[in-house]
Write a structure and sequence with these properties.
Layout lengths: L4 E3 L18 H14 L3 E4 L12 H14 L3 E4 L9 H4 L9 E4 L4 E3 L2 E3 L3 H14 L2 E6 L2 H12 L8 E6 L9 H10 L5 E6 L4 H10 L3 E4 L6 E3 L2 E2 L4 H13 L7 H7 L4
Parallel strand pairs: 1-2, 1-10, 2-3, 3-4, 4-7, 7-8, 8-9, 9-10
Antiparallel strand pairs: 5-6, 11-12
Helix pairs in contact: 1-2, 1-8
Bound molecules: (5S)-5-amino-3-OXO-hexanoic acid and zinc ion.
Length: 269
């Protein structure tokens, strides 16, 4: 079974002080995304930063980043509406007005490390409905079993359309621990026809990405999820992380889908 590789080059938390190779400006992000595309990524999960590297939902920065990426390659842009813990939900949700092909939908509020990730039920419903109107495919980010149940009720209410695409997020303090048992449980609970990828944050990134691939999931790679290629080995950029995921998929006999094939597999509107 073939596989979709997503690159997540930036994320909401790390800065260049943590790893100087983290792309944060629109130009740096576009260059990193093009490299990942050439290595086999079909989807780019995008977080935006302002000039001081702070997470932002600024629409001009978003538009510029999307344009720069589109000038370089036809990768499917998946805009993060998670953005960053400091940005209000009402600002985050406006990003879908730019009509990226996909965007994340975080169904629940939760503790997130030392912070709070606020996704109020009314706002989540409003955002899901707007994404459906705009034909922006949701990437459903589930950090715990209850988050899946909320997604299933959104589906029942007609706010989501099948096939659902899930990111099973593990290793965030406040969500599921990054263990194979939790991954298997989550996968076994997904509705028939759903597609999924594992997002393993931190130390377990490589092992759980490999297990996810072996179980038939898609894969995500990039500096949002880990800044290291191995213990004590800071990643020199996003490219080696993406190349590693591509190699893992090939070693497991999972052909990599190109952009058009991935759009079809995800049934993007
Ligand atoms: N870094 C993820 C664990 C999103 O992009 O919508 C949380 C996140 C959500 O960034
Ligand atoms: Zn993200």
């Amino acid at each position: 079974m073939s596989v979709i590789i997503t690159v997540a080059p930036t994320g909401p938390i790390a800065t260049k002080a943590d790893n100087p190779n983290l792309p944060t400006s629109p130009e740096e992000i576009a260059v990193a995304v093009e490299g990942a595309y050439r290595a086999g990524a079909a989807v780019a999960h995008i977080h935006l930063r302002d000039a001081d590297q702070r997470p932002t939902a600024d629409l001009d920065i978003a538009r510029r980043t999307m344009d720069l990426i589109a000038e370089r390659c036809p990768i499917l842009i998946q805009m993060s509406t998670g953005v960053g813990l400091s940005v209000p939900f009402e600002d985050r949700e406006k990003l879908v007005e730019l009509r990226p092909r996909m965007a994340t939908l975080n169904p629940c509020s939760m503790s997130f490390g030392e912070g709070e990730f606020l996704n109020p039920p009314k706002g989540v419903r409003r955002l899901a409905a707007r994404m459906r109107e705009l034909d922006v495919k949701p990437e459903l980010e589930i950090y715990d079993t209850g988050h899946l149940e909320v997604c299933l009720s959104l589906l029942e209410e007609g706010l989501l359309a099948e096939p659902l695409q899930f990111s099973i997020v593990m290793g965030v303090r406040g969500g599921m621990a990054a263990t194979p048992e939790n991954l298997v449980t989550m996968v076994s609970r997904l509705p028939p026809g759903a597609t999924w990828q594992i997002i393993a944050v931190g130390k377990a990134n490589l092992q759980l990405t490999a297990i996810g691939l072996a179980l038939g999931g898609n894969a995500r790679a990039g500096m949002e999820d880990t800044l290291y290629l191995g213990r004590g080995r800071p990643a020199p950029g996003n490219l080696p992380l993406v190349e590693r995921a591509v190699q893992l998929a090939r070693d497991l006999d999972r052909p990599i889908l190109n952009v058009n094939e991935a759009a079809q597999a995800l049934r993007l509107p």
